[in-house]
Every structure is written in structure tokens, then in C-alpha cells.
Amino acid sequence: MKLGIDIDGVLADVLTTWLEHLNRHFEQNKVKEDIIHYQFEKVFGVSWEEMDRFFRNNQENLLTNLSPVEKAQETMEELIKEHNVFLIAARPEEYRSITEKWLTEHSIPYHELIMTDFSDKSDYCLNRGVEVFVEDSLENALAIHACGIPVLLFDAPYNRDPLPKGIFRQHNWREIARTVQELNQGNDKLFKER
Ligand SMILES: [Mg+2]
């Protein structure tokens, strides 16, 4: 199958690192469960401009010192043996080399890295013939799902809304590996059960 996989919040544990920096910068004490919006300015009670400035000024730090999500590396090693893997990240093109370096450092295999610069991921999915997508942003998940592509939504405090049929909430990489296998076997029971 052709798999589309997001990076931030799926392969890279951005929340831990970003929270440390955000708490220090805005002098707050938020924990992961407080991040109930993907728009961090709402969580921290600051303006969009302030948050944008924070991310622009700290981008390198925020994208370099990231730990991989638990079992992401091992699972990607397994998936790439059987599937085509497209990493489709919202990051701007100028961060390609930082991103490639991080992927190499953490031995995360892939066939192609696509940086969408915050534009709609569904165009890239259709273009590459992606059959299943792994994502953590609910907004992106809904857009990709609207193109008829099943989405595995990596559970996070900011995406806990009710999900339509065809978007599957997943809690870890082992669960993702199992669901990919079921979808690959054409198990339509999956759609009836959830
Ligand atoms: Mg993400």
C-alpha cells in the first residue's frame, strides 16, 4: 500500500519539547493535557502574532531537539518492507535539511519526504495515490478523509472530537501497524465496528 505519514506529533514527539520552551518563554506551567487546541496561542492566552514570533525565532531549536515517538522507528522499519512510505509534513521547504538530518539521526526510513509549507495535504495524497494516512491534526485528518482516504489519527489532547467513519483513533505505533495490516487485507469489518 501507499502510506502517507505526518512527522510532527506522529513520528516526532513535538509536544514535550515545545511545551518546555513555551512554558519558559510565556512563564506558564502547562501540561500536555492542557493542549486542547492545535492553535497554541489559545492555550497560552497570547495573540497569534506573539505565538507566530515565538515559533519563527525558535524554529531551529524546536525542530532539532525532538525525541521520536515511542516505537515509531521500529514500526517504520517494519512498514517500509511492505509498503511505499511518503512522509508528508506541513513544514516549510526551508527546513528540509534539518528534517532530513533528524530522520537520519533517528534511523527513520522513508521513500519520499514532502514538505507542504502548511498547504492542504490532501492534494499531495491524491497526487501520490496515498491509500492510508497517519496524522495528528484533526483539521488535516478531516480534509484527507474528505478525499476518500482512510486516516489513522494519532490520539492527542487537541484532537479528541468525535470522528466520522473512516478516521480511526490510534494510541500508539503498534496499534497503527495492526490497523495498516487490517486495511491492507481489505478488512471492511473495521469500518463497521468503529
Ligand atoms: Mg502533525
CATH homologous superfamily (4th level) name of the largest domain: HAD superfamily/HAD-like
Q: Per the principal axes of the C-alpha atoms, what is the gross shape? A: globular
**H-E string:** EEHHHEHEHEHEHEEHH
What low-confidence regions span 5 or more consecutive residues with pLDDT below 50?
none
> What's the CATH class of the largest domain, please?
Alpha Beta
Provide the domain count. Answer: 2
In brief:
By secondary structure, the protein is of the alpha/beta class.
Word description of this protein:
It is a single chain. The chain folds into two domains: 2-13 and 67-193, Rossmann fold, CATH 3.40.50; 14-64. The strands form two sheets. Strands 5-4-1-6-7-8 form a six-stranded parallel beta sheet, sandwiched between helices. The protein has 194 residues and is an alpha/beta fold. It has nine helices and eight strands. The chain binds magnesium ion (MG). Magnesium ion is lined by residues 6, 8-10, 136-137.
Helices and strands, with pairings:
Elements: E1 2-5, E2 12-13, H1 14-26, H2 40-44, H3 48-64, E3 67-68, H4 72-82, E4 84-89, H5 96-105, E5 112-115, H6 121-128, E6 132-135, H7 138-145, E7 151-154, E8 167-170, H8 173-184, H9 189-193
Parallel strand pairs: 1-4, 1-6, 4-5, 6-7, 7-8
Antiparallel strand pairs: 2-3
The protein binds magnesium ion.
Which characteristics define this entry?
two-stranded antiparallel sheet, 194 residues, Rossmann fold, single chain, 2 domains, 9 helices, 6-stranded parallel β-sheet, alpha/beta, binds magnesium ion
